[in-house]
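Form P-L/3: holo structure prediction, ligand nicotinamide-adenine-dinucleotide.
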Amino acid sequence: MANKVSGVVRVALIGSGGISAAHGKGFLKHADKIKCVALCDVSQDNLKKRSEQLAPVGGGGKQFGDWKAMLKEMAGEIDAVDICLPHHLHAPAILDAAAAGKHILCEKPMCMSLAEADQIAGAVKKSGVTYMSAHNQLFMPVVQEAKRLIDGGEIGRVLWLRSQDCFRAGGEGGDPFKNSWRANLKTQGGGELIDTGYHPSYRLLYLAGAPAVSIHGQMGRFAQRIEGEDTASVQVRFANGVIGEILTSWAFPLPHGTHHIHVMGERGEIFGSADTLHHLPRGAKEPTRVEFPAVDTFEAEIAHFADCLREGKRPIHSVEEGRAVLELILKATSSAQGWEQTAAPR
Ligand SMILES: NC(=O)c1ccc[n+]([C@@H]2O[C@H](COP(=O)([O-])OP(=O)(O)OC[C@H]3O[C@@H](n4cnc5c(N)ncnc54)[C@H](O)[C@@H]3O)[C@@H](O)[C@H]2O)c1
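OUTPUT (holo model):
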């Protein structure tokens, strides 16, 4: 296991845009175990915003426009980096951080190709740093409780499961990806599936409990002005025989009456979203419904990262899981080839 960090983890935030605000909430909440000591972004506006958000905990520290310069100048002052960059910059930033001997938390996806994933695996192993995939939705109470019930045998052998995340990005008639790196295949690495669709994908892998052995996807573009798909449906067969499916979309909401996760076992089923879980034992007429205290999954992710570094523990998802979910997405995308021919213009 990688070298432990003693005391408060000193982290540098690379990418101070949209999602880094959610990570910032984690730094504010868990100031006893992690402190942002440097901010890096090419946008002065976003550096300012993040520094203002982090004012109660020191303002996020020194500011940089180039992460290479930051890693060099602050070599002795940071333990870890938190990468919140556009997708095409994940692999270069991870490789630079690993070479500098810094622990890494990186937003999804880990990178855009399996070749990059293998390079990252080699670099992380060589440097001995801890790598955590920022798979925040693993911290949803419904996912944690479902995992506990499945592993405890509550619904018997799992037969089938579904994982979903759907919403109309930008609202009806909106154009949220205009001038965004997300609209471009080269910077996004795909469409919706490698972005929002990444969450239901790692949830599915986590709950299935075995590697995927067969993956097929179908894709469509119904609402968004982007080069990739805005909707994906993926079918998966796992090595333990479990059948799984993913539905994910930026074109429409979660189909009425369905949930983030649904798991069918030999002795019952469990389903639910976010903080709510239903359990219907086989033969019972009505499911029980449990409401868990709400969890901010980003705050929980930041706390877990800090705890792993301070205690020398392996994060819940690391390089191997980051690679597995990317492989699922790339295989689904490749098997859906040709879908653009039927994609209607918006
Ligand atoms: N977990 C989630 O629910 C969730 C939600 C949204 C985004 N994300 C992920 O977070 C990451 C960032 O997404 P976002 O929505 O915050 O994007 P964003 O465009 O809002 O932020 C990206 C930031 O990176 C900066 N940047 C670009 N090039 C840079 C460079 N060379 N050096 C330094 N900074 C640079 C930009 O100026 C911007 O501030 C993506 O990987 C995305 O998939 C995750």
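COMMENT: The chain has two domains: 9-135+298-314, 141-294+327-342.
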